[in-house]
Amino acid sequence: MSELTDQLWDRFGSLSYDDLPADVAEGARHSVLDWFGCAIAGSREPLAGILRDELTANDGPCSIIGSARRADPLRAAMVNGATGHALDFDDTSPVMGGHPTVPLLPAILAIAEEQGRSGADVLTAYVVGMEVQSRIGASIGPEHYFDGWHTTSTIGVFGAAAAASWLLGLESTGFGMAMGLAASSSSGVKANFGTMAKPLHPGQAAERGVLAARLASRGFSANADAVDGNQSFAQAAGTGTLDQARIGSLSDSWATTRTLFKLHAACHLTHAGIEATKSVLAEGIRPDDIRRITLTVNPTILDVCGIPDPTTGLEAKFSLRGTQALLVNGVDTAAVASFGDEPINRPDVQRFIPLVEVDTDASVANMATHVEIDLGSETRLASHDVNQPCTDLEAQGNRLRAKFDQLAGPVIGSDQAAALGDELSRLPNVASIVEVLTLGR
Questions:
Q1: How far is CA 345 from CA 214, 290, 321, 326, 348, in A?
Q2: β-bridge partners, 356
Q3: How far apart are CA 125 and CA 175, in angstroms?
Q4: Backbone angles phi, psi at 140, to 5 degrees
Q5: How many Cα atoms sit within 13 Å of 252 on the Cβ side?
Q6: Residue 385 forms beta bridges with which residues?
Q7: For the CA atoms of 17, 245, 146, 198, what is the dihedral angle to 10 degrees?
Q8: Which DSSP symbol is given to 58?
Q9: Where are the domains positioned within the chain?
Q10: Which of 21, 224, 254, 291 fits a disulfide with 374 by CB distance 3.0 to 4.6 angstroms?
């Protein structure tokens, strides 16, 4: 057992639902609700159909979201993980440095459905995985992401393995083996952003997290020091070691409460610019009034959403210029359909893209954007930062339920979506997660 895995398991390995503070449990439930909406809507994306055709049949114990298909736990985790990220509309975590729920919850659901576990067990496993992956993500530092690794996958696999280990009842030694196996399963590079491969990454992380824990439960050996020891994940894909001070800074807090939720169906790093420009457009500004929009962002953002001339919906999601052109021309960036191929190729949208400039300034916060809108006779300025979690959980829950209804209703029908949303609202009291998953097909 390594010092790190021992430390993490001592803190979270014996966690029970009754141990969770009310805001932590509610934050976890919000993430589950948000994921279900994103996954059900994402099930109609081409990549989800390809994966279902390749990996599923009707012969396993586990549900495939938005489909009548079934699969074994590994393949269900893979397909559901990718499907939940297909729209890139799912939650994010500034602590982990990625999307926390998409690699985590599909792994949990695969095991929980097979075992008939309760909603409270799902939420507890979620918090275990979230807190473990957040500490590993925080301690490896932002350099890992800036170097090209897709943190949602490379760090998410540890959360998936931790949550699966909790559900399988592993002891500390088994958890160390699962973490060691997860370290050898960590993968995903940012070069694939804007393609179907990006959502595949969390699917792979979910599948490999389940596999790591299941193998460990059978006595499969690995090196618990493979996370942060010699020749480890931290050395190979980080700066050499994990920063214990960053882990220590989370010792009295819960990363689960710091999750951020998307209200626009694009990369989260485009949202600050969208909100800043929206505030100016609300004053009655029309597209023809605008001569130029200049966005000033942190330079690291360009490695994520710097696609200069998007021509597909997937590219538009990762384009500061594309999202601005859509917004200015009246396209609803909160709607999933707005990021199909047709809206970004509208003549008015394509004509506007060259009018958007992107400047960089290292002093601008990562999730903030300054906007300057040249109207010819005057210039309007606006700024926005999307890096602060909501503290009004009731208001957040209402917004997420509305988002869920908008996403799930067109796919499974409004009545079934309402029933599923109601079940998710009472998730701590649900006797078996099977009841919930049946409604999500």
A1: 46, 20, 13, 10, 8
A2: 293
A3: 14
A4: -80, -20
A5: 0
A6: 368
A7: -10
A8: B
A9: 3-261+391-439, 268-385
A10: 291
- Rounded distance between C-alpha atoms, residue 374 and residue 434, angstroms: 55
In one letter, which amino acid is 10? D
Q: Using CA atoms, how far apart are residues 313 and 252, in angstroms rounded to an integer? A: 42
Query: Per DSSP, what are the bridge partners of residue 371?
Result: 295, 382
Helix (H, G, I), strand (E, B) or coil at 85: coil
Can you tell me the distance from the alpha carbon of 170 to that of 361, in angstroms, rounded to the nearest whole number?
47
| Alpha carbons 95 and 354: distance in angstroms, whole number | 35
What type of residue is 84?
A: G
Architecture of the domain delimited by 3-261+391-439:
Orthogonal Bundle (1.10)
Residue 276: Cβ-neighbour burial (10 angstroms; 0-12, 13-18, 19+): buried
The reported pTM is 0.91
At residue 130 the predicted structure's pLDDT band, cuts being 50, 70 and 90, is very high
Q: Find tokens 């199909």 and name the residue.
A: 340
Would you put residue 330 in left (φ > 0), alpha (ψ -120 to 50) or beta?
left
User: Virtual CA dihedral for 158, 159, 160, 165, nearest 10 degrees?
Assistant: 90
* Alpha carbon 239 to its chain's center: 24
Instruction: Please compute, for residue 42, the number of CA atoms within 13 A of its CA located in the half-sphere on the CB side.
Output: 31
Confidence of residue 239 (pLDDT cuts 50, 70, 90): confident
Using one digit for the tens of pLDDT, what is the confidence trace for 17-36?
Answer: 999 999 999 999 999 999 99
Element (H, E) at 400: helix 393-412
Pairing of strands 292-297, 356-360: parallel
pLDDT one-digit tens code per residue, 336-377: 999 999 999 999 999 999 999 999 999 999 899 999 999 999
Average pLDDT value for residue range 170-193: 97
Q: Which tokens go with 322? A: 């594309």
HSE (side-chain half, CA atoms, 13 Å) at 246: 19
What is the CATH architecture of 268-385? 2-Layer Sandwich (3.30)
